[in-house]
């Protein structure tokens, strides 16, 4: 078969699978109200439709990366695609919230294999300029998935019902499995496979599971609850045991030398900065637009295109800039400046009643910051490590990415609620003396619901209180943005120091 056809077929297969994962993450939430009505699910069960996927996705990326280096990247990639297909079919026919939550957790395990092994396949199959183009397309397709996921899911939901969303995932991944002949079978390490670090993988998964559970359940149990403390202690203990084991195991699931590779760690921290600067807004900005700017759900969804549109252009732009001689370090530093500048500009440009066009520049800047790094960071990170460790490195990179996304989103929500409570409690205490009711009011406003709290006050004051709630939400939003800006600034300085050797960065982008 012609090599050009093989290359294009392989790209198409990998990128189709890559598209499904972020579109599932950003799009499934659209169906939650319909799922709740159809399955009579509680609020907690509905939250786990999304959380179960994210939890297993983050927990299993490193394990799949190590498995790929041992058993073969093609084999593990196809296993993940098959697992995701079966989970999507189960989701489509689920008749209870528990079954759906379980299916989404299994889908997250498959998604971890698709991302870890798919990135490793691209890294080892392509060289030089072809690798740069492949990873630029990877960033663009991932951006398309994030951007179009809610729109595609909404269309399927309105036209055919929520189950059609999961049928769509299954069909797309069946096409991926049919295209498997385009992926070359890579070498496996049979000797290492007999000594795969099963205990290490289990310890890592349990440690990350404890941390993610603490983050997810913190808002349900309270951040100072005994349950959260127990989970955090469990995470620290399991992590210490895991690190000790990896230091002495002959075939560790995580080669700790990766964390001594400054360029790799710098690239991994770029994904952390993107989580705090972009993913948090992707998750929570619609609530601000509907609460403070009074946009409808449709208007807020369309407005989010200002944030996501640069993801369609900037990954390819980053690749072209590097191919024309611009250093990768310069492009990545520019992406961080865009994230920081966009957040700071959003602080200054946003206020109650602001015309939407005034938010265009900051949102486009944040989107550009995400897009410039999305098309570059994965390829650069994997090129900085030995080829035989590409799967493990891809798993660790995605663990940084997904773990930081979960932490960033949880931190945003916690800070917003805390700052909103400080802003509103004194004023609302005039009408609400019960502390539990007051907490529910604050939580409702933090979730973007201004209608639930209003009946607790005198009817003649409802409009005044509504304006107070809007003002309080706006103040809390700005407070959170300042914290995000500080985190991004610290990360940007650290990353610039880690990736500063210009000659090394140039060398890893050139054909060998």
From TrEMBL:
<feature type="transmembrane region" description="Helical">
    <location>
        <begin position="164"/>
        <end position="184"/>
    </location>
</feature>
<dbReference type="InterPro" id="IPR036259">
    <property type="entry name" value="MFS_trans_sf"/>
</dbReference>
<feature type="transmembrane region" description="Helical">
    <location>
        <begin position="402"/>
        <end position="421"/>
    </location>
</feature>
<feature type="transmembrane region" description="Helical">
    <location>
        <begin position="227"/>
        <end position="243"/>
    </location>
</feature>
<feature type="transmembrane region" description="Helical">
    <location>
        <begin position="330"/>
        <end position="351"/>
    </location>
</feature>
<dbReference type="Pfam" id="PF07690">
    <property type="entry name" value="MFS_1"/>
</dbReference>
<feature type="transmembrane region" description="Helical">
    <location>
        <begin position="102"/>
        <end position="122"/>
    </location>
</feature>
<feature type="transmembrane region" description="Helical">
    <location>
        <begin position="47"/>
        <end position="67"/>
    </location>
</feature>
<feature type="transmembrane region" description="Helical">
    <location>
        <begin position="476"/>
        <end position="499"/>
    </location>
</feature>
<feature type="transmembrane region" description="Helical">
    <location>
        <begin position="263"/>
        <end position="285"/>
    </location>
</feature>
<dbReference type="InterPro" id="IPR020846">
    <property type="entry name" value="MFS_dom"/>
</dbReference>
<keyword id="KW-0472">Membrane</keyword>
<feature type="transmembrane region" description="Helical">
    <location>
        <begin position="196"/>
        <end position="215"/>
    </location>
</feature>
<keyword id="KW-0812">Transmembrane</keyword>
<keyword id="KW-1133">Transmembrane helix</keyword>
<feature type="transmembrane region" description="Helical">
    <location>
        <begin position="357"/>
        <end position="381"/>
    </location>
</feature>
<feature type="domain" description="Major facilitator superfamily (MFS) profile">
    <location>
        <begin position="10"/>
        <end position="504"/>
    </location>
</feature>
<feature type="transmembrane region" description="Helical">
    <location>
        <begin position="76"/>
        <end position="96"/>
    </location>
</feature>
<protein>
    <submittedName>
        <fullName>MFS transporter</fullName>
    </submittedName>
</protein>
<dbReference type="InterPro" id="IPR011701">
    <property type="entry name" value="MFS"/>
</dbReference>
<feature type="transmembrane region" description="Helical">
    <location>
        <begin position="134"/>
        <end position="152"/>
    </location>
</feature>
<feature type="transmembrane region" description="Helical">
    <location>
        <begin position="297"/>
        <end position="318"/>
    </location>
</feature>
